[in-house]
Sequence to fold (378 residues):
Amino acid sequence: MFKSVYLDNAATTVVYREAAEKAFEMMTHNFGNPSSLHTMGVKAEQMVDAARRQVASLIGCRAGSIIFTSGGTEANNLALFGAVEARKRAGRHIVTTAVEHSSVTTVCDELEGNGYEITRLVPDKNGCIPPLQVADACREDTVLVSIMSVNNENGAHFPIEEIVPAVRRAAPGALIHCDGVQAAGKLSINATSMDVDLLTLSAHKIHGPKGCGALYIKKGVRILPRALGGGHERGLRAGTEAVPLIAAFGVAAENIPPPTEQQKIYASLRQRLADGVAKRDDVVWLSPDNAVSYIVNLSIPGLRSEIMLHYFAENGVYISSGSACSKGKKSHVLTALGLPDRVIDSSIRVSFSHTNTIHDVDRFLEVLEQATTSLIKR
Fold:
């Protein structure tokens, strides 16, 4: 019997034991409501505050800049809707990219239907969006620029540190949001030095629990809430805090290895994968040159993605066909890049965690060989 190999870490990651134990503790022992004034409530509040400091440390910011949410999707919604609502008198123009996560693209579609003008930038053939391109897209009435750090489907890494000053010069009044879900914890991120106004994080991408995320809000930046009542999270996110999940998020943030250590692992895994597929003429490497080392998008033209995924799963190897949120729909990212349908329909994504090994990659390559031989014969 073969051992399961999990290579879908851009979709979710296994929860650290320490994080799971912290969640259990907060559900069964320190289960007070952090808004309660008694001892158990104060203890719960202290745990939330501790997690806020831990998450803040992960991205190099002050604890007071972290707002906890139910995940990256809610954080993106709060950032975009909250920003444009706060800035609605300044203009109705937004700059973003055509390859954002669906929680950003769908919000932009909604805003467009409500009278906002959206400029969607398309990366070049090398997967790049140059800072000058972003700056040139800005106008006097631009109120928001939203660009991800790392693309969740092909791993493209956009130069946010260079984009931000270019936008500041071109549109000083615009708020700048960055979806950092696929970058935080794996790349060295310092929200303060990046100078973004808003930055999205998600716990379950860094070995924390699902159902918890965070939005970094730069000191002095004003956005409006999407839900009202209770005054939780500085009045920006109504509802009793999910203390077990938040506490576990903090533990995961504290336990994840330094990015420099992780990058050594990812580089070796990616190289092993690259060497393995380089020997094959039936595999197309889709990730651009500027992609991070822990997300790789491949295509085997002629073999549909869902068929490949089922075959791999039957053999204990778990990969993806792109964003887990798309549920099998044609990739809007690869479509925006102008790739042929035959290539898009056959794309698969391999995404690493620091817990993966060379043996995992070898097993993937072994099953890939079996899959192409077996499925082509059918």
